[in-house]
């Protein structure tokens, strides 16, 4: 199959090339800092292709990329605490998926832009949950993350802000985060499949965009330790802000 055969019929070659370039940049952010890929990718890519296709594409790519990390996370994580949070995601993911499958693309893009903007503010604030560990808080955070993942694959900031604020070893916090997202991605995959969002177009397109994203992750990982983390995080925040602004539906006429 030729490269053009991997591109969905309703996505032009120029737009597909742009989406691959966005994947490279967002993958680099993920590889270096461990966050920001979806917050950069979703607003920009959704302005070039249907949000349903873009969200399914990112899910397939992330599911493949994250799978090898789950066994190690399973060994180190606090599985009981993570399971409580996953129970919230089990509820939140289908709700977000339902909205993604039902809303018209323009409305979905406005919601994605608003959500990503709010999540950027959360990251910039440096928020960490310092309160006591209550099951209902874990379920609520998991539900919010699941909803964001179901709607736009942007469930990272609430989970990261919660776990990194807990008085536990960083290795365990990281393992909890990885294990949660492994379970959340699985829930999203089931929900997307059931809703008809994971299509042959999304899978074929992932064969083109996925390797480019992986290259970005590898490149970002190589940069880690060689560049200032503070500077790079600042660049990531700037890219996310630019993605929110450029991805606004109101600017479509100006940017095309």
What order do the helices and strands come in, and which of them pair?
Blueprint: H1 13-33, H2 37-45, H3 51-66, H4 70-76, H5 79-102, H6 105-125, H7 135-152, H8 156-163, H9 170-195, H10 200-223, H11 229-246, H12 252-255
Helix pairs in contact: 1-2, 1-10, 2-3, 2-11, 3-9, 3-10, 4-9, 5-7, 5-9, 6-11, 7-8, 8-9
Describe it for me?
With 256 residues, the chain is mainly alpha-helical. It has one domain. The protein has 12 helices and no strands. α2 packs antiparallel against α3, α5 (79-102) runs parallel beside α9 (170-195) and α6 (105-125) runs antiparallel to α11 (229-246). The chain is globular.
Descriptive labels:
single chain; 256 residues; mainly alpha; 77% helix
Question: How many β-strand runs?
Answer: 0
Which of globular, elongated, flat, extended, rod-shaped describes the shape?
A: globular
Radius of gyration: 17 Å
Q: Could you report the average pLDDT, rounded to the nearest whole number? A: 84
What is the end-to-end distance? 30 Å
Count of the domains = 1
Tell me about the largest β-sheet: none
Beta content comes to: under 5%
Helix content: over 70%
Gist?
The protein has 12 helices and no strands. It is mostly helical and 256 residues long.
């Amino acid at each position: 199959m030729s490269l053009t055969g991997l591109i969905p019929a309703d996505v032009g070659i120029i737009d597909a090339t742009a989406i691959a370039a966005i994947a490279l940049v967002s993958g680099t952010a993920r590889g270096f800092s461990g966050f920001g890929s979806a917050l950069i990718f979703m607003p920009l890519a959704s302005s070039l292709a249907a949000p349903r296709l873009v969200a399914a594409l990112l899910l397939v790519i992330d599911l493949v990329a994250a799978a090898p990390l789950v066994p190690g996370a399973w060994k180190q994580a606090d599985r009981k605490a993570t399971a409580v949070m996953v129970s919230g995601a089990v509820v939140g993911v289908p709700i977000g998926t339902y909205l993604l499958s039902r809303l018209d693309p323009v409305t979905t893009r406005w919601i994605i832009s608003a959500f990503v903007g709010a999540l950027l503010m959360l990251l910039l604030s440096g928020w960490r949950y310092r309160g006591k560990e209550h099951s209902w808080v874990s379920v609520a955070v998991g539900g919010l993350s699941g909803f964001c993942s179901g709607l736009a694959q942007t469930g990272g900031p609430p989970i990261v802000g919660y776990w990194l604020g807990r008085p536990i070893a960083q290795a365990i916090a990281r393992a909890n985060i990885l294990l949660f997202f492994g379970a959340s991605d699985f829930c999203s995959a089931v929900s997307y499949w059931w809703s008809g969002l994971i299509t042959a177009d999304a899978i074929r397109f992932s064969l083109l965009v996925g390797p480019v994203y992986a290259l970005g992750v590898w490149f970002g990982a190589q940069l880690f330790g060689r560049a200032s983390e503070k500077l790079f995080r600042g660049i990531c925040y700037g890219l996310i802000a630019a993605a929110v602004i450029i991805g606004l539906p109101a600017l479509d006429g100006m940017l095309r």
